[in-house]
Amino acid sequence: MLKRLKNLLTQPLPEVKKADVPSLTLAVCVLLLEIARADEEFLSEEEQHVIRTMKVRFSLSDEEADELIERATQVREESLDLWKFTNRVNEALDQEQKRKVLEEVWRVIYADGSLDSHEDYLVHKLANLLNLQHSELIEAKLAVLKEIKGEGS
Fold first, then answer.
1. CATH number of the domain that residue 75 is part of
2. pLDDT at 41
3. Rounded to an integer, what distance in angstroms lies between the CA atom of residue 31 and that of residue 25?
4. Does residue 28 lie within any of the structural domains?
């Protein structure tokens, strides 16, 4: 028994497959789709905002954006949690860039004009997973609300 335990402990860990690590683009898209569907409704305003965001932020063509949305939808449905996506964002982006991602999350939330309790819960969870402080969550929300009211850029 001790020999089996020793063998288990001394075996090398399996390598993480490249396919298991999502691209930054895919990770951000999954997060935006997750928040868009948090209230059990995926409105066309939310979908259009996700598509527009992915096209602008990652310089995608219409075809590339459509393929990304399709792939992200599939990956999202197969995933048990959001950790691998937020982890990828954490690895690739600095605090300010992650705050910008959170602003995009808030834009998706407010694409339909309201904040649902499920969306509120999920945005707090995402901020935590992205290692953002509560104050950064609130700053991002206020920036988006100000923008929506036409008071900022």
1. 1.10.3680.10
2. 78
3. 10
4. yes
